[in-house]
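agent: user wants the structure for WhiB family transcriptional regulator from Streptomyces mirabilis. delegating to structure tool.
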Amino acid sequence: MSRTAKAPALIEADSRILFPHTDAPLACRTNPAWFAHEHGQNSKDDLARIERAKTACSGCPIAAGCLKWALANRELTPTGIWAATTARQRTGLRQRLQLRHGLDWVGVVAQADRERARHSEARPPAPDPVQPASPMWSSSYEPWTEPVTTGQQQRNRELLDLAQRTTRTPRPTETLAEVS
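agent: tool returned. relaying tokens verbatim.
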């Protein structure tokens, strides 16, 4: 009589929060061993590896989306470092989210993400960060490269003093008689 082993059940990710996509090289893909962490691994080497993984996550372009996904998929992330958090930290975050948003906190977060995306699509595109050249100059600003002479420094101080005298407003503690 032979026993047939039952295959483990496939755990599917929560489809309301998708794992973020990027083509950028990520530390979790290039050095996955840094992110492997089991409960009870507390040696000096383990703690150094965890800190290395958390530091790598701090510069990750998808860390926020990765954290949302890891929080929403408890069964798929029982161990390891995900978005600079350990399993224990993620458990605490899930509990706080549940207290704040209720049992279906994943649905609340997903809905907020959809609303945010809808509003960002409705917004006009951001202006070009490169400032146009000033109308009084024929080209864009070039920083001053020559040293400022003593005469230029004196002239700048005089102009600054003149500007401060002509636009001076009384301070809240001064009376009008003290200013004039």
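agent: one observation worth passing along. Residues 27-104 form one domain.
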